[in-house]
Amino acid sequence: MSSLPDVPLSSPSSPPSSSGSPLLGFGLDLLIGIAVLLLLSALGAVAWGLWRAVETAAAGGAAPAAAGMASALGAPGALAQMLIALFSTGGAALLLYFLRRRASAAERADSRQALRRASTWGWIALVAAGVFLGSSFIGWAAKQMGVEPVPTNLLLMQQAWAQYPVFLVAFAVLLAPAYEELLFRRVLFGRLWSAGRPLLGIVLSSLAFALVHEIPGISPNSFPAMLQLWLIYGGMGAAFAWVYRKTGTLWAAVIAHAVNNAVALAAMVLFGTQ
């Protein structure tokens, strides 16, 4: 994780870091991110299909007809899905960072200095605990109303734990928090923070964070169940943006996010909870 290009942003009272409307810049960042994510996801799926075709040929199987290609190759397994997610979302985050929100040397130095402050670690612990307690309360309250959603990625996590536990831990606890914070907090939230609109940045970036994790039309959950998950993910996004701004280092958000994912993964393994 030491290679993450982390930076604090200028204070909200500083002049906007770029000309033009910050909302327009945010929208452009979001559209670029979506386009790159979809493109890299498609490329990843094609690469996986080619690999499966090579495996089938090496095993001595006949090349399937075009009509039966999908059934012959099957669906990507847990490892392939995680690799595609890492390639697509991580690639989109890095591209947007280097093209649109790259840090200066001074910003990186300030970020490292902020990480050495004891107060930063106190805020990290507070936010990590708050996210866990808040998510637990929302889940408990929804259950009292008969709403028990199943996160879209739960089955993938369960399959990955059964087959690739070491990679799942690396993916969920180290890699995913790093590239998600780089994309949603550094790039999206940071765009509006540096323009003096931090509250709007928290709202919009957290909304995007929630929708990416539970996509309408793809999620198998009912609308009330999706609302609960959006509230949880949105609250997480807001908390991570807040600790980023409070401490002045993106590492605070990354670490709080990693702790949250580690706790959720441990709960899934030990108790079978969502």
From TrEMBL:
Keywords: Membrane, Transmembrane, Transmembrane helix. The keyword Transmembrane applies. Residues 164-263 form the CAAX prenyl protease 2/Lysostaphin resistance protein A-like domain. GO terms for molecular function: endopeptidase activity. The chain crosses the membrane at residues 23-46, 53-73, 79-99, 120-141, 161-179, 199-219, 225-243, 250-271. The keyword Membrane applies. One of its GO terms (biological process) is CAAX-box protein maturation. Coiled coil: none annotated. PANTHER family: CAAX AMINO TERMINAL PROTEASE FAMILY PROTEIN (PTHR36435:SF1), SLR1288 PROTEIN (PTHR36435). This is Membrane protein. It comes from Stenotrophomonas terrae.
